[in-house]
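Lay summary. Proteins are chains of building blocks that fold into shapes, and those shapes determine what they do. In this project we predict the shape from the chain. Here is one chain we studied, written as its sequence of building blocks.
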Amino acid sequence: MRSFKAILAAALLFAGGAQAAADKPLVWVFSTGGTIAGSGSSPTDMSNYTAGQFTGEQLVRGLPQLADVAEIKVEQVVNILSNDLTVADWLTLSRRINETLADPRVAGVVVTHGTNTLEETAYFLNLTVKSDRPVVVVGAMRPATAISADGPLNLLNAVRVARSPDAKGKGALIVMNDEINAARDTTKTTTYRVETFRAPELGMLGYVDEDKVAFYRTPVKRHTVNSEFDVRALKTLPTVGVLYSYVEPRPELFQALVKAGDKGIVFAGTGAGALSKLERDGIDEMLKGKGAKPVMVLASRTGNGRVIGTKEYSDRGLIPADSLNAQKARILLMLALTKTQDPKEIRRIFAEY
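And here is the predicted shape, written in a compact code that computers can read:
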């Protein structure tokens, strides 16, 4: 039999561990797969790997330093390549985060994600999470099995930001490469480099360094608790397609989206959001026809700067996307269409978000 002293020591150790856990902020990690959970055939396999091979629990267990930062709970939402995420997955993730943040003990949430569509998920959460507590989306450019894998440090830094009081009220954040970026402003800018996520003209929000989480600016566009969108009871979203402009585009692509019944169409126009005569003629022909018309938004393929309303395009009903890229304008339009189909109201929404 164990001695009384041994039993007492074990009890004290358990109590001390429970107290230590209680003293730490609680951070939930929602895992969706991607490169951060990827596995290659060798440590030098940086491109021909398989995403989503490790679970969120495995990622957390493989990073014992997390226990020094926060109490961690993990939920696996999906475990796939981020290209394969669906709107249904977004709705599930947003709903689970909202349910989790209803618990006042939770300091913040981290979402592990593949980088290909990370900016889209982050912006969707920026518009649909109804809490001012941090929601941090994190990924990796190298699989977990690679030499100098960037995932572990990215995940540690993401948890540090999620538990930081200074991150409160700043909307959904993207944390990678020791940098903190706003979900609205940030895009993937390079194919393999670890410094891929940038807000090229508007800049990052801050750094995650060894000594502290340091913020230098705050997003001013509407988000999270100030957002008018509530998707918690929705099972799907209105369909919105994206058309990319180029020399001599095919009007058939536009016609196909209209015939398919898309509720909205986003154009990634050239320059400051310019469309060719072929595109303009296609829109004019559609507007003359009968039946429901899609709401149209005009973004720019350049990736920087604002698209502003001009008479030529406003007369055709095209709504300027401001500084949102086409993929994020699509998300905002889908959400706007859950509230209204009034072009004036949707124009207001694009000005405010």
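What the prediction tells us: Residues 1-19 have pLDDT under 50 and may be disordered.
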